[in-house]
């Protein structure tokens, strides 16, 4: 139940966004992420976008881990 | 490859496993025992079992499943009350799918549905508000279970019902909060834990700073972790590294999703509608202020106030979900596991839920 699903934002209207979830399109609520923009990746939970996934931080996490493994 | 798919990259997973084993062995050499970590979140429990990481690390790290599966921690009496609610006349009960097969003392919501009660599985609490709008002649009740990830969405549902001026929508609140239960576990001292793998999605709302009490008051470290194999392993590595170096800290290893102070919009909405209330946890009795209840000014949306449901004390069963939730035993130590209790015929919620420890052990860790 607490599993979040990442989705790409395709369109935004009022408090709703059209998102792509692994090829499926659906409308989700955006109340909790008012700063949302088209092209963002968001994490969904029970029909709501709960946070914007920071792709730069994701890459930094991977790079940090690769550095640990190289040490 | 999508950037986020890198967190499941096989090559990186294998290297990460080797790194975790190396640091766990260094800890063992120094302390003479394995590091003991508790994954608080039920989704972590399932991800550890499904990915094979728990099985692979069995001789190096002791992983204990914590009280973070919302269905599993719902106490028997609440489940009985929810099933009894379905008997109310002209009522539509809405719930998440996981709740349907959880056994109460004598029935399940699924059984009640097959007997003709109007019980509907919804993906979002907001769907139940729409159902209430479409059926003004019926009372629509949403069974509000969940942790801090879900509670803001319950608040959003009430906001919608308020905007629509609905008088036939209520929520049966039995929500749970992470901090009080972690305090309860640590204060009870029944389970010995070196550090916590902290829940990724609850932390989306709460933020990293909400766990400072672990470090400051209990001197126990924690790492907020994601759910993909590499994220599970990096979280473990950082936690064992802290332990090995005798550092107490709270780290965020899910920075691309979890922010320092969480989601302020969600928390503000949550506190608009709810206040702290005492909650009964399965196997742990009532923990003071461990849940949220509707404020008095929103009592019209409170199913517990609108419907007079009185349930008897539940009958005793041999199910040991309560001890499993508290991290005291493994599923295999329950006499019912894989005998009377299976996913097809579950006795306790830990076998029913998609985040349940028993379900994880049954599906991925059982030895035939």
UniProtKB/TrEMBL annotation, chain A:
Annotated NCBIfam families: hypC_hupF
Protein name per the record: HypC/HybG/HupF family hydrogenase formation chaperone
Family: Belongs to the HupF/HypC family.
Record-linked PANTHER family: HYDROGENASE MATURATION FACTOR HYBG
Residue stretches in coiled coil: none
PROSITE patterns reported for this sequence: HUPF_HYPC
Pfam families reported for this sequence: HupF_HypC (PF01455)
Automatic annotation (TrEMBL), chain B:
Key words of the record: Iron, Metal-binding
Origin: domain of life: Bacteria
Gene3D superfamilies: 6.10.20.100, HypD, alpha/beta domain 2
Pfam families (UniProt xref): HypD
The UniProt record lists the keyword Lipid metabolism: no
InterPro entries registered for this protein in UniProt: Hyd_form_HypD, HypD_1, HypD_2_sf
Leader sequence segment: none
PANTHER family in alphabetical order: HYDROGENASE MATURATION FACTOR HYPD, HYDROGENASE PROTEIN ASSEMBLY PROTEIN HYPD
Family in the record: Belongs to the HypD family.
Protein name: Hydrogenase formation protein HypD
The organism of origin for this protein: Jeotgalibacillus haloalkalitolerans
Gene transcribed to yield this protein: hypD
